[in-house]
Design brief:
Elements lengths: L1 H32 L2 E4 L4 E4 L4 E4 L2 E2 L8 H12 L5 E7 L5 E7 L2 E2 H7 L4 E2 L7 H13 L10 E2 L9 E5 L6 E4 L11 E2 L5 E3 L2 H6 L3 E2 L9
Parallel strand pairs: 3-6, 11-14
Antiparallel strand pairs: 1-2, 2-3, 4-8, 5-6, 6-7, 9-12, 10-11, 10-13
């Protein structure tokens, strides 16, 4: 009788064991698919599954701009060759998933914003307020791209005083020179691709046009 009960118990246990093995392998496959094989720049990367992911609520400088390489290096240190947890909330204009990305309990998006290696955007998700707070802290404390590394109040060359400015809402490129009404208020934010020019011709060749508040004035 005991033998029969033992066999019956094993038969009852077998489906549970098989289910646990199945779930373990499924979870293992999911984790392996979330293994980061490449960091593309400071806000996007590729998983082993082939899926490209973009970090939500932030945009890092382009690689050719000030802070771009530093942002990429920092993201590599956080996620490259590691398994990440990805929470997707929406997609960008290139149909890349926008996600909150975790390594263990560390929210990668928050780290990059808090250290000043990216600018904030208000994409709706449950962590938006936390991410905005991280960004505000970096900006207030002049960290990363908000430091003198990328925010330039004085030109590299003494006689190159023309400020090239890029509008964030429409990417319009304009330039300001001494005498323009907005000149003193304009900062050169090199992480956005803004720069100093030595002449109006130099600015025009790079696609910048004279700012409206400068018309009627000569440099």
């Amino acid at each position: 009788m005991k033998k029969i009960l033992g066999i019956f118990g094993l038969l009852l246990l077998a489906p549970s064991v098989i289910l646990n093995i199945f779930l373990f392998k499924k979870n293992q496959a999911l984790q392996e698919g979330n293994f980061v094989t490449e960091v593309i720049d400071g806000d996007s990367f590729t998983l082993k599954s082939g899926q490209r992911i973009r970090l939500s609520n932030l945009y890092a400088p382009e690689l050719e701009n000030c802070g771009g390489k530093e942002a990429k290096t920092r993201l590599e240190s956080l996620i490259l060759n590691k398994i990440v947890n990805v929470e997707i909330f929406s997609h960008d204009q290139y149909n890349r998933p926008l996600a909150l990305v975790y390594v263990g309990n560390t929210l990668v998006n928050e780290v990059l914003l808090k250290e000043g290696w990216a600018r904030y955007d208000g994409t709706p998700n449950p962590k938006r307020d936390i991410l905005k707070k991280a960004y505000d802290s970096a900006y207030a404390n002049k960290k990363g791209i908000f430091s003198s590394l990328c925010i330039s109040e004085k030109p590299e060359k003494p006689n190159c005083l023309i400020k090239g400015n890029i509008q964030r809402d429409n990417n319009a490129k304009t330039y300001h020179f001494p005498g323009c009404s907005e000149y003193d208020r304009v900062l050169v934010e090199k992480d956005l691709g803004e720069k100093w020019f030595c002449s109006e011709n130099e600015a025009l060749k790079e696609g910048f046009s004279k700012a409206p508040n400068c018309f009627g004035k000569k440099y």
